[in-house]
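Quick note —
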Amino acid sequence: MRPRRLHWEIALRQTITGDRGLSTFLSRLSAIGMVVAVGLLLAVLSIMNGFEREMRERILELVPHITIRGTADESAWREIESSIASIAAITNSETFFDADGLFIRGREAAVARVVGIEDAGLGRYQRLLSPSIDSLGSRDLVLGKSLAESMNLTVGDPVSVLLSPSYTDTSASSSGVAQRFRVASVLHSGTELDRQLALGAQSTIAALSPSVRQNGLSVQIRDVLQAPGLRFQLSQSLPIGLWVSDWTATQGNLYRAIQLSRQIVVLLLMSLIAIAVFNIVTSLILVVTDRRPAIAMLRTMGLQKADVTLVFMLQGGVIGAIGGLLGSALGFLLALSAPQLSALLEWLSGQPLLNTQVYPLDFVPVDIRWSDFVIVPGIAFTLALLASSIPARQAAAASISDALSQSR
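Predicted structure written out below.
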């Protein structure tokens, strides 16, 4: 029998293929603890990654990354739009008109932001509209799903909208008079925007504004994290009387909250892995105590201290490998089933698990990143291997005579 094969057989026998003795039980218990710790960490990481992805790709896709506001006529806005088109970081820009609106239907009322956009601006909302529309009529509105549901509105229903006085033309005969619109489509993004946003034809919203209009230019960029720097650059080059803001002013707290929550959760679950590693140390120390007579007998048969150390290092490595591999499988299954589990909890409780009045999304997003499924098990395996060195050295240093006397 080759020595290396002997090392592996002893390590495996004490971990997974042995009898029901104390040594095998403790080793299996340590492996189960590592599996649970790695699985939970990977599942929660995937959910937090999902929130981060939805924040970037869903919420920030629907709001301007940078907003330029001020008092200017249409030709001035067109000139500004053409002047910033050469900036490589900018992917799209378009003028808009917006105002706070009071929506009224019978006894139902709600307040939301009314944004007037051109038909070309519907492109980024297209996949979220039901039914899909290519253009907005002069009296058409797109309402967020939560906003429409709060007022019992469906597609085709009429709704009256009263724009805020600071935006309406106080000199016009229509000032202070609710305007009648029709719900042309419903926007379902699954985010808090569903209860805050309404879209209308830009020409209609502009017609309800004064001749010198306070409107804006919305700018979309490739990398949303570059928005603060680009905002500063634009504020230095634009004419006096215009001011620039970016998405961090309205959504930045939410993004930072997601990042902070992710860091806290990772810290807590890494602590769980640390506890599992500590469990490996204590378990292997008990294994060393339990196997001391057997170690002494093997030493008398010619096994060296280095061989004993290697056996227990291999045992710790086997526990770490089992914890990493099975933990990855468990984390993958938990991450895949997270949306279904949340739906089951909602069905059992009769209440939504996530509500956009409290949370940014009304569903549980999942983003499985394979880098996490390589790094986390790798860290767990390395820590388990390092942790096993403590009981391994203790086993190698044990006195043969004392161990044999205890076995009598």
